[in-house]
Amino acid sequence: LGTIDDVSKRTPSAFQNAGEKIILIGKTDADLSASEYAGIYNQIGNQTPKVNYEELKSEINFLLESQSLISSAHDISNGGLITALIESTILKNLGFNIDTNLVHSQIGAALFAETPGRSIFSAKESNVSKLESLAKKYNKSYSTIERWLKLWVII
Q1: Under DSSP, is residue 99 helix (H, G, I), strand (E, B) or coil?
Q2: Which of 41, 61, 67, 98 falls 20 to 30 Å from 10 in CA-CA distance?
Q3: Which DSSP state fits 151?
Q4: Cβ distance 108 to 32 under 8 Å?
């Protein structure tokens, strides 16, 4: 837990602009044990996700250094990637179209895994190469997972 001295400089958790890239940081494991998804089917499993504290530290440092390059950031936790994406779109009425194969080859793992140490963020196209360089610096798995981010049309 930390404090923010100037809240006007905080990074919002909701996507901010149509047309920006959605980027996943961190590696997705196929383990669904102890996940919200497994709980729906009463298949909680017998193990909790393994936390790698060095990975978490690396992610935090990456996010701190990339703060000026990103428009939003959201952790991936309860409910997995799909929940984080939906929570990120609601505030600004934005939508998304992702390629789940860029996340994991198993659709269930791609959408519902709660692997610790992952986040999604949005960024302008012009910042993507800088973010890729930072990901390499911090040895972070990095994927641009969206095809587009657009306004939803509700009929």
Answers
A1: coil
A2: 98
A3: B
A4: yes
Q: Are 59 and 117 in contact (CB under 8 A)?
A: yes
Task: Note whether 25 and 61 are within 8 A (CB).
Answer: no
The pTM score is 0.83
Q: Cα torsion at 111, 106, 71, 13 (round to 10°)? A: 20
Residue 152: what pLDDT?
46
User: If you average pLDDT over residues 42-55, what whole number do you get?
Assistant: 77
- As a residue count, the chain comes to 155
Pairing state between β 72-75 and 119-123 = antiparallel
Question: Would you say 103 and 145 are in contact if contact means Cβ atoms under 8 Å apart?
Answer: yes
Backbone torsions φ then ψ of 150, nearest 5 degrees: -140, 170
CB 118 within 8 A of CB 82: no
Distance between CA atoms of residues 109 and 87, nearest Å: 18
